[in-house]
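[09:14] KT: can someone run the structure on this one? pasting the chain below
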Amino acid sequence: MPAVNDIFTASVRDLSSDGNGVVEHRSGQIFFVPGVWPGEEGEFRVTGFRKSFGFARLVKLLRPAPERVTPQCVHQGFGRDDCGGCPWQFVTYEAQLAAKEMRVRRALSRLGLDERIRPIWGSPQQFGYRNRAQLKSDGRAIGYVAQGSNRLVAIDDCPILSDHNRQTLKDFLATLPNPALRPSRKAQWSTLDIDEALTAETVSINRRRPFQQANSAQNLRMRDWLARSLANADKALPVVELFAGSGNFTEVLHNAGFERILAVEGVAEAVDALDTQGWRGVEGLVCDLFSEAGARTAAQAASGSGVLVLDPPRDGFRHIGTLTTALSKLRHIAYISCDLATFVRDMQTLLQQGFVVDHIQPLDLFPHTPHVELLAALRKP
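[09:31] RB: done, structure tokens below
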């Protein structure tokens, strides 16, 4: 069996769920390797083991994939001094989209949903698309972290940021060294949240900004998808929206003509921001949706709802069965997911309850990463 620091030659046979290459040692041991693509052959150094699998690093590329390209960002890479934010920047965008769609189809095939999956929607912009980001600083440098570590990697530019945010980064770099950015004794760094409403003078330090979808063009696409998916639903049906945030999708529901909308969110500040919109028929509710008790509270408040819209974080909505069982009049569901594994789990629950999937639309929100967004329209026959 191989040991740490052993070097072996192998071909990349697949990609893991987190986007790393899958290679097999001649002993049969499986290793996960960053920065390689299916079909490539290389020399690999063993770096560690966990349970039944191991980790390795590329030492020498012997046969590159035809999809391999030179990254546009000088900070992209997989070493201790490289930024780990865009791990797939070394292959063509077309290859990235194909890999994401294939991963979705594989994961959902076990539920028999293959024919319900539509071709993935690529991002109109592969660079300059990020309208928000969280940088890190120790007061001497500003950057992101190396892949699989807590090591701060200094950067002098970030080409995936929007023009506005790139300028904010440039202006903020000019303030270094900056004593105001030194972390507290218990922290490794200070966080710097930036978005297109902020400048270098107003960067949010150690305070997370309200959530917003990070790709404006794709967010517009998701909003349009939601409106079209519910276009034929009876607008008199009460709507319950979970993980509503500050109202990104609530606004779509309001503009579509739904008369009663209960927008449920766990962050009180977000509900306060939603309430300031003054949308008629929209009521905000602060509720912890990560507990079963919270799910029951939301179900009780949403009694009689015929439409469910949800956009949960990566954990998905573990208590979706509790809520949908309680909502006996539910007829339409629009599920927006940012994690394939929890999406599959929650879809299985909904299918068991008799809901039918009309379609599933994959969408690329974050080019150059393994991340894939999923938009699913379901109904009760």
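[09:33] KT: thanks! DSSP finds eight helices and 17 strands in the chain.
[09:34] RB: yep, looked fine to me
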